[in-house]
């Protein structure tokens, strides 16, 4: 029954999000699958943190006045942050004897996604410069792998708020602090992956460097990282790694 209720509620929320131009059609379908899985495994208690992450991530660009960041999320973008929590929910259903471990993984992956989102949005909005996490070199705020004071503090706050939303599911105390700590650690891992694995390209025509594989109508030259690893892949890897670490910590 929970699955049917979850499917209806998630579908309704995804439909509204699509009408508000937060999601593409594919993004709405993926969000429905994720939402139905979460509600089916944990009901309202599990769905509240997911909804808090989704709403904050969708509304922050508008609230902070970053119109260039209001593009609709695709299915892959939704999966980048939603696949790890969804897999943890499936783990709860398939391996009930490990339920507490999978719920910690669920909460930790959401805390990571929230921390990274808040760090990016606030860091770019309120910091002109940042520092590359691997070298300490000053770079423009928003560059992959860069960190700033405002962004880091905002990410820590976002992870804490998400951990509070998880207390009906996890309880308050050591579990909540574990969710916060894993979320902050996942945010740092995301920056490290962005500075090392994420592909960065240079246009042969204009010389500009960035994360786009195409520039000036031609393929850009890879100058750092792995060609197929973009920001979505980094988000996916960091949330999966954090969920896995949480499950191992519990066990």
Describe this structure in words.
It is a single chain. With 251 residues, the chain is mostly helical. The protein has one domain. The chain has helices at residues 2-19, 25-63, 75-94, 99-126, 149-165, 167-170, 174-196, 231-250, and strands spanning 129-132, 138-140, 146-147, 200-202, 209-210, 214-215, 218-219, 221-224. The chain has a three-stranded antiparallel sheet. A hairpin with a 5-residue loop joins β1 and β2 (138-140). The chain starts with a helix and ends with a helix. The model has no long low-confidence stretch (mean pLDDT 88).
Descriptive terms for the model:
3-stranded antiparallel sheet; single chain; 251 residues; mainly alpha; globular; 8 helices; 8 strands
Helicity, as a percent range: 55-70%
The computed structural class is: mainly alpha
Q: Uncertain regions: pLDDT < 50 for 5+ in a row?
A: none
Mean pLDDT: 88
Which sequence of SSEs, written as H and E, runs from N to C? Answer: HHHHEEEHHHEEEEEH
Shape: globular
With strands numbered from the N-terminus, the spatial order across the biggest sheet is 2-1-3
Report the portion of residues in β strands.
Answer: 5-15%
Can you count the beta strands? 8
Task: Give a quick account of the main beta sheet: strands, pairing sense, barrel closure.
Answer: 3 strands, antiparallel
Give the distance, in angstroms, between the N- and C-terminal Cα atoms: 30 Å
């Amino acid at each position: 029954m929970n699955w049917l209720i979850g499917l209806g509620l998630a579908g309704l929320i995804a439909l509204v999000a699509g009408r508000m131009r937060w999601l593409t059609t594919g993004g709405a379908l993926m969000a429905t699958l994720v939402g139905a899985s979460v509600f089916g495994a944990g009901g309202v208690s599990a769905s509240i943190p997911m909804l808090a992450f989704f709403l904050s991530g969708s509304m922050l660009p508008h609230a902070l006045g970053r119109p260039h960041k209001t593009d609709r999320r695709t299915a892959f973008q939704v999966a980048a942050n939603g696949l790890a929590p969804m897999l943890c929910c499936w783990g709860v259903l398939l391996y009930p004897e490990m339920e507490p471990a999978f719920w910690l993984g669920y909460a930790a992956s959401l805390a990571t996604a929230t921390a990274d989102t808040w760090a990016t949005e606030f860091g770019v909005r309120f910091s002109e410069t940042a520092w590359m996490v691997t070298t300490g070199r000053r770079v423009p705020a928003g560059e992959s792998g860069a960190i700033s004071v405002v962004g880091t503090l905002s990410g820590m706050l976002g992870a804490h708020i998400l951990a509070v939303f998880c207390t009906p599911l996890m309880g308050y105390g050591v579990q909540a602090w574990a969710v916060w700590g894993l979320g902050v650690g996942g945010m740092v891992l995301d920056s490290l992956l962005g500075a090392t694995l994420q592909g960065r390209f240079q246009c042969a025509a204009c010389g500009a460097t960035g994360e786009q594989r195409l520039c000036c109508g031609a393929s850009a030259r890879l100058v750092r990282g792995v060609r197929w690893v973009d920001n979505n892949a980094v988000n996916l890897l960091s949330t999966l790694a954090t969920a896995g670490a949480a499950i191992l910590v519990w066990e």
